[in-house]
Amino acid sequence: xxxxxxxxxxxxxxxxxxxxxxxxxxxxxxxxxxxxxxxxxxxxxxxxxxxxxxxxxxxxxxxxxxxxxxxxxxxxxxxxx
Length: 81
What we know:
The structure is a single chain. The chain is mainly alpha-helical and 81 residues long. It has one domain. It is 86% helix and 0% strand. It has three helices and no strands. Helix 2 packs antiparallel against helix 3 (39-80). The model has no long low-confidence stretch (mean pLDDT 80).
């Protein structure tokens, strides 16, 4: 199965997706603490939240590094001209 990497990256960098994930994690965590949500669902939700947070952090670091490299290359190109 071929996955469009740029589409996945854009989805992960989307602020609406991040907001939805954070609100869902807060709601599920609060529900677990108040015993409105079964513990198994709460634990699964926390695990998914941790994984998604790590993916978002990795994506933003990678994007920052790529932007830094791009800027350095542009500066070198301008110096050569």
